[in-house]
Design goal:
The structure holds two protein chains of two kinds. The mean pLDDT of chain A is about 90. Chain A has eleven helices and twelve strands. The two termini of chain A are about 30 Å apart. Chain A folds into two domains: about 170 residues, no CATH class; about 190 residues, no CATH class. In chain A, helix 2 crosses helix 10 and helix 2 packs across helix 11. By secondary structure, chain A is an alpha+beta fold. The radius of gyration of chain A is 32 Å and the shape is elongated. Chain B is an alpha+beta fold. Chain B folds into two domains: about 180 residues, no CATH class; about 250 residues, no CATH class. In chain B, about 45% of the residues lie in helices and about 15% in strands. In chain B, strand 6 and strand 7 form a beta hairpin. The longest helix of chain B has about 35 residues. The radius of gyration of chain B is 30 Å and the shape is elongated. Chain B starts with a helix and ends with a helix. Classes of the chains: A alpha+beta, B alpha+beta. Chains A and B meet through helix 2, strand 11, helix 8 and helix 10 of A and helix 2, strand 2 and helix 9 of B. Chain A: It is a multi-pass membrane protein. Chain A: This is Putative ABC transport system permease protein. Chain A: It holds the Pfam family FtsX. Chain A: It comes from Rhodanobacter glycinis. Chain A: GO terms for molecular function: transmembrane transporter activity.
């Protein structure tokens, strides 16, 4: 079918065409950017943590006397170990999705050779195997690796990705990395294959984490990592939570920081989930409204052009030709909308990048957005176009 | 004439019910999304102390010592500076605040202790921030010594522990000390909890926690320090500028943990206080206690602005909803145009019988306005639904999401303005319909 006559016909409807083009362009811009944000949120929410999440839970206590922490730890750990189904109980300070201390670390004491924001996890030496972390080099921490709380250099396991950032071409084992203006050093005894930072938000510091064994005391108290069979972890946690009233009557349970690792992940990402839900709802409503606009305007054109359609039918055009006319017309209009939409999309993208520190929109989103809008257009135009195709040739002879 | 146009508009709506319903719905959805997000943004960027927030100021010093040189005054002060400035009494009113977790229970109730937040503050806190009282009142300024054992509690805690009864004079166990209740607040919900927000500017929009409920327990600073034996557990270690801070009493530790707020009722007083603050900072620098004599005196609203308190997600959702409303508007322009032009014949007759272009234009706008009004009603209902959905979310500000009067009228104003705006171009086109041509085709 020749395109020229369709374009010429459109010239008679410049204003309405412009409206659809504008609507498609705006829809394209919102659709592409919103789906990009949603995709970012979804991939962040499903980020791999490197720990054995389904088997783990944590209980956090608050408001206890730090000076008498050893007594509390002993009571709680011994009590929890007696719970049926409990595989292990370990003291920890900080976990993924729960929060942990963090500082910039450098390969040199002066901090001149680059600095990397890193999460500091602490725990008793058994906590690392309980988390289900595999090492690619070195060894797991032993009791003898635990140094006094006031030591300048501690023995630690760091992640592969942090090791690669700090010493790209060297064996990290035995090396010391520094934090806190050279006041604290971590000597590497092992390299973990994967362990996410405590508060995953961006791509820059993904996997920057250090685990340091520590002994029970004022600095390591009140947070307990529970390990159980994945099928029983909820039950074990419930029993552990209930046992706290008798095991630690002198403390209060911090319920916001207590739960299975699944709960913690869910809680940590709940505002991202809410944003993703809201944006997906907006996108659905947006597509519905755009379709409505196309149906309305095309329906009007069909009604307006009934006589012309009749004449074309009378001089030999088939129903199929008429149908095609409206379909191609719609394809062209949506195409123009997308062309304008590309510009608008990138304008939105630049604004979002500026205010929300989002990465650049990959062109694939535009391609998918364009295909979705083209399909939507064809779907929306089908009804009015079929009505147009049903106009009988005899209309041409009436009321001239 | 207006009544006649309204009648015509109603008839026209009745004639094509489906299209009219769809138009009203599309507009309502746009208005609903827009007003829900705008209402949330409006509530979160509101004035937490309406009436006299303009007289409240937040003085800041920059105590940073090497190795942690920061070129910004800190949000809070160390104990000594805070106490020096507070006890100078250079402002109309002045108060100190620091928040900390604590366990609380009623002695002899047999219930386990509850984890709650306590605010260490001074008696001026209550009149300065317009805190309403249900029973009793603030403690007397004479109760600010270390051995006083007085607290004010929130209405929420009074409800939980005493079933809402007058609990003034009763005692609570706070950590390991018995304290006497002197006042019970009426419900008070400043949004944000402006007096102890920190570092909002560097949180990349993750400021939701600024909208948490205020603390449940209020006690004088000296009493709090005494109860906590000098170690306030809620003070984060990273606000200390000397690593030797561990184990020291919060009274002598080089840590920023007390925020100072002052009330200054005239520009002259603000000027004088700023001078006083500068003088103090210069003196501290001369004494070698500080390395910087930088100071800042921001009003409450400036302080909120500086901290960028409205959460990033709320702002992004508001922008997205406005873009969505824009699409709904373009859609309405298109649909209104088809409505009017479908009736070109009718308009032609009216024009031929003497109606002016202006009359046709007005008639069309009245119809657009009617659709806008209906869309406004729908938008209002959808806004209520949207705010209900916000209230179901597990966010700190969920309980705040209610439609207030300005936003209620705003919904209708926006809907009417949007539909009239959308109606102008189609109405202009309709009023330009050539008479003769349309009559011929009838």
């Amino acid at each position: 079918m020749p395109i020229r006559p369709i374009l010429r016909a459109l010239r008679h409807h410049r204003f309405t065409t412009a409206l659809i083009v504008l609507e498609i362009a705006l829809a394209c811009a919102v659709l592409c950017n919103a789906s990009f944000i949603v995709a970012g949120k979804l991939s962040l929410m499903h980020i791999r943590s490197g720990i054995d999440e389904p088997a783990l839970a944590v209980v956090t206590l608050d408001n206890f006397e730090r000076q008498r922490a050893d007594d509390l730890n002993a009571r709680v750990v011994n009590g929890l170990r007696k719970i049926d189904g409990m595989q292990s109980v370990d003291l920890v300070s900080g976990l993924p999705f729960l929060g942990a201390g963090g500082e910039s670390v450098s390969p040199d004491r002066e901090g001149k050779r680059g600095s990397y924001l890193t999460s500091f996890y602490f725990g008793d030496p058994g906590a690392l195997p309980a988390l289900g972390i595999a090492l690619t080099a070195g060894r797991l921490p032993r009791d003898s690796d635990v140094v006094p709380d006031d030591a300048t250099i501690v023995q630690s396991v760091i992640t592969r990705s942090l090791a690669d950032r700090l010493w790209p071409h060297a064996n990290p084992l035995g090396k010391v990395l520094w934090c806190c203006h050279g006041t604290g050093g971590f000597q590497v005894i092992g390299v973990a294959r994967e362990l996410i930072q405590a508060m995953p938000r961006d791509d820059i510091s993904v996997g920057n984490a250090i685990f340091t064994p520590q002994r029970s005391g004022p600095m390591l108290a009140g947070q307990y990592l529970l390990r159980a069979d994945p099928a029983r972890v909820n039950e074990v946690l419930r029993k552990a939570r209930a046992a706290m009233a008798t095991l630690a009557p002198d403390a209060t349970v911090d319920d916001e920081h207590t739960g299975t690792l699944g709960d913690l992940r869910h809680r940590y990402f709940r505002s991202d989930q809410a944003t993703a839900d809201m944006l997906m709802g907006t996108m659905v409503a947006l597509l519905a409204i755009t379709a409505l606009g196309i149906v309305g305007l095309t329906g009007y054109w069909v009604q307006q052009r009934r006589k012309q359609i009749g004449i074309r039918r009378a001089v030999g055009a088939t129903r199929r030709d008429i149908l095609r006319h409206f379909q191609i017309e719609n394809f062209l209009i949506v195409g123009m909308g997308i062309a304008l939409g590309v510009l608008l999309t990138y304008a939105f993208d630049v604004a979002l990048m500026k205010f929300y520190e989002l990465p650049h929109l990959p062109p694939a989103y535009l391609l998918v957005g364009a295909i979705v809008l083209w399909l939507l257009g064809q779907l929306a135009v089908l009804g009015p176009a079929l009505r147009a195709a049903a106009v009988p040739p005899v209309v041409a002879t009436r009321s001239v | 004439m207006f009544g006649y146009y309204l009648d015509l508009a109603l008839r026209s709506l009745r004639r094509s019910k489906t299209l009219a319903t769809m138009m009203v719905m599309a507009l309502a959805v746009g208005i609903g999304a827009s007003m829900t997000t705008l209402t949330v943004a409006h509530l979160l960027s509101g004035d937490p102390v309406p009436g006299h927030s303009a007289t409240l100021y937040h003085p800041q010093l920059n105590p940073t010592m090497p190795p942690r040189l920061v070129h910004e005054p800190t949000s809070a002060m160390d104990y000594r500076s805070a106490m020096d400035l507070w006890s100078a009494h250079r402002a109309d009113r002045q108060t100190l605040v620091a928040s900390s977790p604590v366990k609380v229970r009623v002695e002899g109730s047999g219930e386990p202790p509850l984890p709650r937040q306590v605010l260490l503050t001074t008696s001026d806190f209550f009149p300065m921030f317009d805190v309403p009282f249900r029973y009793g009142g603030p403690w007397a300024p004479t109760d600010e010594g270390p051995h006083a054992r007085v607290v004010v509690i929130s209405s929420t805690l009074n409800e939980q522990l005493f079933g809402g009864a007058n609990s003034v004079g009763r005692s609570l166990r706070l950590r390991d000390s018995d304290v006497r209740i002197v006042g019970v607040m009426a419900p008070w919900r400043p949004a944000p909890r402006f007096y102890d927000i920190w570092q909002g500017r560097y949180r990349h929009g993750n400021t939701e926690s600024f909208y948490n409920d205020p603390e449940d327990i209020y006690t004088p600073v000296a009493t709090g320090l005494d109860i906590f034996a000098g170690q306030v557990p809620g003070v984060p270690v990273h606000f200390c500028w000397d690593m030797g801070a561990d184990g020291k009493s919060m009274q002598t530790a080089p840590c920023a943990w007390l925020s100072l707020w002052v009330q200054l009722s005239s520009p002259a007083k603000v000027h004088n206080y700023a001078e006083f603050l500068k003088g103090y900072a210069q003196q501290q620098k001369r004494l070698g206690r500080y390395t910087s004599d930088q100071t800042r005196l921001q009003s409450l609203m400036q302080w909120l602005e500086w901290n960028r308190v409205v959460p990033g997600t709320v702002r992004m959702q508001a922008w997205m909803a406005q873009a969505f409303l824009l699409i709904c508007l373009v859609n309405t322009v298109g649909l209104l145009l088809t409505r009017f032009l479908r009736r070109s014949g009718e308009i032609g007759v009216r024009r031929a019988m003497g109606a002016s272009r202006r009359a046709v234009f007005t008639q069309c706008l009245v119809e657009a306005g009617l659709i806008g009004l209906l869309g406004g009603v729908g938008g209002w209902l959808l806004t209520l639904l949207g705010l209900w959905m916000v209230r179901q979310q597990p966010v700190a500000y969920a309980d705040l999401a209610h439609l207030d009067l300005p936003m209620f009228f705003g919904t209708f104003a926006m809907s009417l303005a949007a539909s009239l705006l959308a109606g102008v171009l189609p109405a202009l086109r309709a009023s330009r319909v050539p008479i003769g041509f349309q009559l011929k085709t009838l």
